[in-house]
Amino acid sequence: VRRIGAIGGEYDYDVVIVGASLAGCAAAIFFGRQGARVALVDKQPDPRAFKRICTHFIQGPTIPTIERLGLLEPMLAAGAVRSHLRSWTAWGWIDPPAESASRGVNLRREQLDPIVREAAAATPGVELALGRSAQALLREGSAVCGVVTRNTAGEETELRGRLVVGADGRGSQIAALAGIGVKTLPNNRFIYAAHYEGVRPAGAPDGAIWILDPSWAAVFPTDGDLVLLAAMPTKERLPEFRHDPEAALLSFMAELPEGPSLREARRVGPLVGKLELENRVRKKPTAPGLALVGDAALATDPLFGVGCGWAFRSAEWLADSVAAAMRGEEALGRGLTRYRRRRASELRGHAMVIHTNSLARRLKAPERMVVAAATRNPKVATAVDKVVTGSGKPVRTFGPAIPRAIAASARQALSRRHSGGGASRRSLT
Ligand SMILES: Cc1cc2nc3c(=O)[nH]c(=O)nc-3n(C[C@H](O)[C@H](O)[C@H](O)COP(=O)(O)OP(=O)(O)OC[C@H]3O[C@@H](n4cnc5c(N)ncnc54)[C@H](O)[C@@H]3O)c2cc1C
Predict the structure, then answer these.
(1) Is 175 within 8 Å of 282 (Cβ atoms)?
(2) Single pTM value for the model
(3) From the CA of 290, how far away is ligand 1's center (Å)?
(4) H-run or E-run covering 287
(5) Hey, whose CA ends up nearest to atom 17 of ligand 1?
(6) Whose CA is nearest to atom 18 of ligand 1?
(7) What phi and psi values does residue 149 have, to the nearest 5 degrees?
(8) 170 CA distance to ligand 1 middle (Å)
(9) For the segment 375-423, what is each residue's pLDDT rounded down to a tens digit?
């Protein structure tokens, strides 16, 4: 075992980050800007490597973080599309007014990941080392104080750091090595998706989702005039997708009410599918000397399109939370506690909504009332958009004006139905 970058003193680095994808690179940029010495390692040797299975709609609440990282301009220059989401429901479209809708950004991962990695590598203080896989954690007493990595030639290197950050994704080996348990919550849907040219969806550049209760579908315009088509059916439809994934995807999309015309659709790039999408919640996102960010801490159902945003934002919360400790003004443990609390307060409510949705049960009567009202009332549409995108906390967003608007909307729909002018395509309950 060799040690690299020996700077002297107790540690070689202030921060050692495992995983140079969205969460790891964002953390490296934030820590580098604080003046920290950062080692950023990834097992992938290719600097242009990217995550292949992702529908890459980044929701609005992450835009300030992306701007703070200096990434929005390069993303737009690479063709990223700024847009909000419209949702088809059995009662009509939920289309929040443009001025109150949460506007996100959409760029294929093959473009996004290299942009983010280049920005991290160019940040003073950050040393990017690719083709190195984390194998073991170094400890001093009960605290983590570094990582052993192995390169493709089998050579092992110790990287010692005051803080180790696990940004190594959904199957986090760092979390496992640290003995942090995982809670797995079921997801009863699966996904198949691909990029197409020759598709011009109504409402573009805005993205659209279909709440087919309980299946879902998504159509997202993205860079290069491409459109991502994604089917998220319940598991009964698995045999059809296993038999001929592309034929099943196209026939699923062709069945969408008010869906895009696929007559001239030509696939660009591979068709990707993922059959197991369970939610993976780490029991604790920190341990002494260690923090988890991005999917390593919490990997949820992709249906709400929050994972990329949570990767960027959790890196920001971590770097901000431990900044004082990095300057030597307080113990690291205090900063890690601050990070844990911030994450919980930002994500807990939204994650609960997502985990419930992953069960793929039919909407219950109160949920149907909310969805139906959102198709008619712009305030309810805005509230639903806030909850789905995570730009508002569910409890605060829904009280107390919104329940009144929902009840009024339901009363109007019923009275229209009784007077024979019913516009609803489906009953409210
Ligand atoms: C089907 C699907 C669709 C999705 N769609 C969306 C969407 O529309 N919008 C959205 O916001 N999110 C979406 N997501 C979620 C999003 O892809 C992830 O949340 C996001 O990529 C997490 O980023 P990350 O940096 O935490 O982890 P990852 O992007 O998974 O990166 C982990 C990195 O760690 C490296 N690594 C792993 N192990 C080691 C090791 N031992 N040593 C060194 N390096 C290691 C890997 O090589 C990789 O580079 C989707 C996910 C899925 C599965």
Answers:
(1) yes
(2) 0.93
(3) 19
(4) strand 286-287
(5) 54
(6) 307
(7) -115, 155
(8) 7
(9) 999 999 999 999 889 887 776 777 777 777 777 777 877 777 777 654 4
